[in-house]
Amino acid sequence: MPAMPEERAGAGRIVYRNALALPHDRPDIFQRLSHWAHRQPDRVLLSEPADDERRSISYGQALARAHALRKRLVSRHGLRKGDCVAMLAPAGIDALVLKLACLAGGFVHTALPPFPFRAGVHDDATRPFLRAANPRLIVAPDNHPAIAGMGAVSVAGLTAALDCTAGGNAEELDASPDDWAAIFFTSGSTGAPKGVPITRGMISSNQTAIATMWPFLTVQPPVLVDWLPWHHVFGGLDNIFKMIWNGGTLHVDATPSAATMDATVRLIGEVSPTMHIAVPLGLRLLLDRLENDAAAANAFTRTLRAIFFAGAGIDAELWRRLAAFRDAHGDFRILSGYGATEAASTICLSPAPLEQPGELGHPLPGHRIALVDVDGRSELRVAGPNVAPCYLIDGERVDLPLDEQGFYCTGDAALLRTRSDGVSIFAFDGRLAEDFKLSSGVKVRTGPLRAGLLAHCAPLLDDIVISGENRERLVALAFPSVAGRAEPNLAAVLAARIDRWNRQNGGSSTAVARFALADAPADRTRGELSDKGQIVQSRYLRNHAEIFEALQAGSGQAPSSA
Known about the structure:
It comes from Pseudaminobacter salicylatoxidans. This protein is of the alpha/beta class.
């Protein structure tokens, strides 16, 4: 595995890059669709649930329908290159065809988050998104309230009876790498949601770089079973375009839950995925099912080449389970990465199978990363062709937070870690925005503290929220895992675990004075849980300030030895 070359960039800054070069040949994503549609027109591009069966669309059909829908959008709705089309439909064939039609016509596609638009009205929840994207057309599922309340167009009416007979001979768009292809929104957990324009060149550089780092994607067309929502850049840009770029197939699955796992396992057995892309929520539920079903586990790993997850988010106990599953059931690789909406999803990828959780990997080919001191921690900053041109806020273009050397400031801390093979990689070190100071002025590094406590209390907790800003001591709210809920004396066991933690980490910035068990999960509808299944600490603290005030006042439980 190659090392990361270093270069001096002035002011004592060391910049790291990938030893692999980014190829100059970076075709447009729509060209990749056309390539596969002519080379393998009958290969399934995407399938989706349909009653008790599944329906699918092939590459040839997708190209023809995209051209036909582009023509309809122009003739019926007067769209021109650069106009924005907003989509409220979930991941599936209709959403795919509209996404591809926008690429064919040079329209800017945005997938709006479903919850703010659930009532289909113009209000304080929806206006920030609409002002940022300024859509010329909104498309929604049949019977969605937005059709009556916002003048949205029915997706069924828009895509019905498309004339696909001339699809293969459609006029090709004169597209530039600088043309905007999509707008995705950041979570908005710390303020108003920000639109991030994604250019066609960002998509091309992202997918070219991924294929360069992970050539196994090009050896055989990848097959992916995926539930990630398409209003996030991970699922709605990276995953679907990774399939199109490499001639693969994406099978849309239901959001994971205990109730959906049987159907997911059946689907996996039918389609034999070659890779699995997941976040902790989905991985945990899948392992709950597969660890107790050897036949299902063997079906899952039969053709599996890699499991990929966002390296910043996995806890030590989930990593242990995943590694044990790999050792027991297959020859697949465990890989991770790191990214942001502002970077077309991806900034770092694993150059080799992981040794431990928290590894972010190497920068993508063609990109540079700098670690810059920010109040005693090293912020990861990135520069390269994947970085977005601006934010969109209130209908205005706003600069990204770039430093004096043009690097995008991610707000995440990282460090260099040396693997057992002697190669250095970047490792996650928490989010700077989650850090806070006690009343003494001592800084609390929330990310590493949460990770340390979760590892110390494994496997009893899924998450823990830490509070204490401008107070004298730390308090915590613990969210039990399945194993924790099965422990009859959970509070007492945790009291003993946290007591041991405190004796080993006795400083005011690490010791937990009081804790309580959460009596309900984080509420996604209130912004407390991301679509990736992770608690948004800042939002949870704001929504439940009274819990943490009560803990500071003496409620809950103090750590104690068993």
